[in-house]
Amino acid sequence: HEFKKPLLKAKSITFIKNTTPAAAVADKSQLEFILRNLIRNAIKFTPNNGVITISTTREEEKIKIIIKDSGTGFSASDLEKIKRNEFLISKPGTNQEHGTGLG
Predict the structure, then answer these.
(1) How does pLDDT run across 44-58, given as a tens digit for each residue?
(2) How far apart are alpha carbons 55 and 53 in whole angstroms?
(3) Are 61 and 52 contacting, i.e. CB atoms less than 8 angstroms apart?
(4) Any residues with CB less than 8 A from the CB of 29 and at least 6 apart, and which?
(5) Most buried among 18, 32, 63, 74, by the most CB within 10 A?
(6) How far is CA 18 from the centre of its chain?
(7) What is d(CA 72, CA 44) in angstroms, rounded to the nearest whole number?
(8) Cα distance between residue 87 and residue 103, in whole Å
(9) What is the DSSP code (8-state) at residue 83?
(10) Which of 9, 10, 3, 75 lies closest to 38, judged by CA?
(11) Distance separating the N- and C-terminal Cα atoms of the chain
(12) pLDDT of the residue at 54
């Protein structure tokens, strides 16, 4: 994913890819869209010199994709709002970018 290189470089973020090739039935364009969005949000809310890791695991007939970052995360009250499907207000990223961080 070449789109992320300038964003990662600008914030000196380390990107670790720990994935295993696997075949899956999925809509390729939808999956790429979702992953791009999640990775962009990880970059947006990860501080300079932070780390983002993408990994995969196989669970029976499913492939689990995990994107983990050293970003700001959510407060306990924001997590409760997410669970209740309540609207979250945009909050600034580490370089004052806009978004909720939900991806």
Answers:
(1) 889 999 999 999 998
(2) 6
(3) no
(4) none
(5) 74
(6) 14
(7) 10
(8) 14
(9) H
(10) 3
(11) 17
(12) 94
- CA–CA separation, 101 and 85 (whole Å): 14
Contacts 24+ apart (CB under 8 A), 62-68: 63/22, 63/24, 65/35, 67/35, 67/38, 67/39, 67/42
Contacts of 40 (CB under 8 A, 6+ apart): 4, 7, 103
Q: What is the mean pLDDT of residues 53-75?
A: 88
Listed residue (2, 4, 18, 24) closest to 67, CA to CA: 18
Tokens coding 59: 């669970």
Widest distance between CA atoms in the chain: 41
pLDDT of amino acid 44? 87
